[in-house]
Write a structure and sequence with these properties.
The chain has three domains: about 1-295, no CATH class; about 345-450; about 450-600, Histidine kinase-like ATPase, C-terminal domain (Heat Shock Protein 90). It is about 70% helix and about 5% strand. It has 16 helices and nine strands. The strands form two sheets. Strands 6-7-5-4-2-9 form a six-stranded mixed sheet. It has a three-stranded antiparallel sheet with strand order 1-3-8. Helix 1 packs antiparallel against helix 2 and helix 10 packs across helix 11 (about 355-410). The longest helix is centred in the middle third of the chain and has 90 residues, at about 250-335. It is elongated. This is histidine kinase. One of its GO terms (biological process) is phosphorelay signal transduction system. InterPro entries: HATPase_C_sf (IPR036890), HATPase_dom (IPR003594), His_kinase_dom (IPR005467), Nitrate/nitrite_sensing (IPR013587), TCS_sensor_his_kinase (IPR050428).
């Protein structure tokens, strides 16, 4: 993974660079495509709404001059409402393209909400002609603000022409304002406003014509140089001087219509120009992105092939090392402990890298050294076992002879004090015999002590308690009459004695050690409970793990010989020994003897055990 990670750093950088190039070029194309979308959803419906508002402004001005009936006004208002509804519906899908567009569209919504107020003022004659016209002018100004905001595009030529076309459209809007003001005789305030509008329109037209390119300028020039336009300019001068030309409405209406057609064709032409530019940008994006992608793919393939080859070789070396550490060496050590001979194949890793070959050879050397060390350790353990066994056997012989002499002396003794001393020596001999058997167990051999017939489990518990130095503190409670199979009696007595001795050693001298026994579903269970300081959960878990899976005997770990002997004896007879906390704060050892080693009570009559707990006492 580290090798791949090192390779991924430059590869990731290349991929990021490719992504940036692709994103930049593709974004340009998408923005040009978006120009067409904004035209469809915002600008085109806005133009239609402007036309309807211009017509409503004109018919409202006629109504205020008593030149149009109310039904004509209502009809035009219905058409305006329909255009407004279409604009609102289409603009909802595109107004969130940017924060600026959203702000401008909301401003248009705010002005459109004033339509009902404007209409109410007109219907109730609360608004004069000039105020009504200027109220409609404010709505149209926000719509043209939307045009200018939406016309922003990264392509400079298209943006410049679009801006000029919008100015020409606004010049047409100024013409329709003139038309609405000068329908008849005008007041001084109306003439001042009319004069300002005429000056602005003429300046706007003269400035815009010089900035249009020929395909867009020629239709505009043809319209400006027409006889109808020159006639309208003469009428504008007459209106400024205070006169009212009779055919002003028809001439201005015709020119406004012509201006509208020319501006709409220009807007559609600019919208169509964005597509080829977008296609060119997109083709350039495809070329750049494709070239960069090919380079990235070649780099990735080459890097990954090199990395994969090296990773495979390292992976094979890793698997070989794991096999040596987890399978081969433990298997070899196990065979060596069993006294078998082993043959070691070398660690071989097919690699074209010199360093990996060297590491493989080093692992072979390490394996050979480890096996030699294991052989030496096995021989050492075997020698130690022989020493333990020989010493234990010699001690057992001497102790056996000592017990025979002690029994003879006990039979001949008549002095009570001397007899008590002999009993103490006999108990000491018993404990020494158990320690000698412990050495035999550590060596891996069988102690040899056993019974031919089943023994009551109560007697087993008592016999275990009798082998403990501090036996007066041990209380063996009454238990059922089940019997223990003779071949395992000696080992169980030794096992329970070790647990009792641990309980007496690691608990205060004034406390009792309780030994209980009862029948279980899967055999018979002994409980040895002390009232000492107890053990932590971590230590209990560690000791239970040792008791469940006896480790190899370590000469350096001689402080826990008793538990090691217990684990060996338990494993020999499939006995389960578990340590847990005692309710009294100490530790409880549970010895579960399998049912195969437990026999039913002896059917022969026997003396009933007293109800009170029995204490094992050798002499008093």
């Amino acid at each position: 993974m580290k090798i791949i990670g090192i390779l991924l750093v430059p590869l990731t950088s290349m991929v990021v660079l490719w992504g940036v190039i692709t994103a930049v070029t593709a974004t340009e194309s998408l923005e040009l495509r978006e120009y067409k979308t904004l035209w469809t959803n915002l600008r085109h419906p806005a133009y239609k709404l402007i036309n309807e508002i211009q017509r409503e402004r004109l018919v409202s001005a006629k109504h205020l001059r008593h030149m149009a009936a109310q039904p004509a006004v209502e009809t035009q208002r219905s058409r305006t409402d329909a255009a407004e509804l279409t604009f609102r519906r289409l603009s909802e899908s595109s107004k969130d393209e940017s924060e600026e567009i959203r702000t401008q569209v909301n401003a248009v919504y705010t002005q459109l909400n004033r339509l009902d107020v404007i209409r109410g003022e007109i219907d109730t004659s609360l608004s004069d002609r000039l105020h009504a016209v200027e109220s409609y002018d404010a709505i149209i100004d926000t719509l043209f603000g939307l045009h200018r905001r939406v016309a922003l595009i990264d392509d400079i030529p298209i943006y410049e022409q679009s801006r000029v076309v919008i100015d020409m459209s606004y010049a047409k809007e100024l013409l329709t304002r003139e038309q609405a003001i000068a329908l008849g005789p005008t007041t001084a305030a109306e003439r001042r406003t009319f004069t300002q509008i005429v000056g602005n329109r003429r300046f706007l037209v003269d400035q815009a014509l010089g900035e249009l390119d020929p395909p867009l300028r020629d239709p505009q020039v043809a319209l400006i140089t027409s006889a109808a336009y020159q006639r309208m300019r003469m009428m504008e001068d007459q209106i400024i001087s205070g006169r009212s030309p009779g055919d002003w409405l028809s001439v201005s209406e015709e020119l406004a219509k012509s201006f509208q057609d020319v501006q709409m064709r220009a807007s559609i032409d600019l919208n169509a120009r964005a597509d080829p530019v977008a296609d060119e940008v997109l083709n350039r994006a495809h070329l750049l992105a494709g070239t960069a992608l090919v380079l990235v793919i070649v780099s990735i393939v080459f890097s990954l092939r090199m990395g994969n080859r090296l990773s495979r070789e390292l992976g094979a070396l890793r698997l070989a090392a794991l096999e040596v550490a987890q399978e081969r060496l433990p298997h070899v050590v196990g065979k060596l402990r069993g006294g078998e001979r082993v043959e070691l194949p070398e660690v071989s890793v097919a690699s074209s890298t010199v360093e990996i070959d060297d590491v493989g050879q080093a692992f072979s050397t390490v394996q050979q050294t480890a096996v030699e060390a294991a052989i030496g350790q096995a021989r050492l353990n075997e020698g130690v076992g022989h020493v333990f066994r020989n010493l234990a056997r010699r001690s057992q012989t001497l102790l056996h002879r000592q017990r025979i002499q002690l029994e003879d002396m006990q039979h001949r003794a008549t002095d009570p004090d001397a007899l008590e001393d002999l009993f103490k020596l006999d108990h000491l001999t018993t404990r020494m015999r158990r320690h000698a058997e412990g050495l035999i167990i550590l060596s891996g051999a069988t102690p040899g002590r056993g019974w031919s017939r089943p023994v009551p489990l109560l007697d087993v518990a008592r016999g275990a308690a009798a082998e403990v130095e501090d036996y007066p503190r041990v209380t063996v409670e009454p238990m059922s009459g089940q019997r223990l199979a003779g071949p395992v009696v000696g080992d169980v007595i030794h096992l329970v004695a070790e647990l009792i001795e641990n309980a007496t050693v690691y608990s205060p001298a004034h406390t009792q050690v309780i030994v209980r026994g009862e029948e279980a579903a899967r055999g018979f269970a002994f409980e040895v409970e002390d009232r000492g300081l107890g053990l932590s959960a971590e230590v209990l878990a560690e000791l239970n793990e040792r008791l469940a899976s006896p480790p190899e005997f370590d000469l350096a770990d001689s402080d826990r010989l008793g538990l090691f002997v217990v684990s060996r004896l338990a494993a020999r007879h499939d006995i389960r020994v578990t340590l847990r906390g005692s309710p009294y704060g100490g530790t409880t050892a549970i010895v579960l003897i399998p049912a195969e080693h437990v026999a039913d009570p002896n059917p022969e009559p026997h003396v009933k055990e007293p109800a009170r707990p029995m204490r094992v006492v050798r002499s008093e």
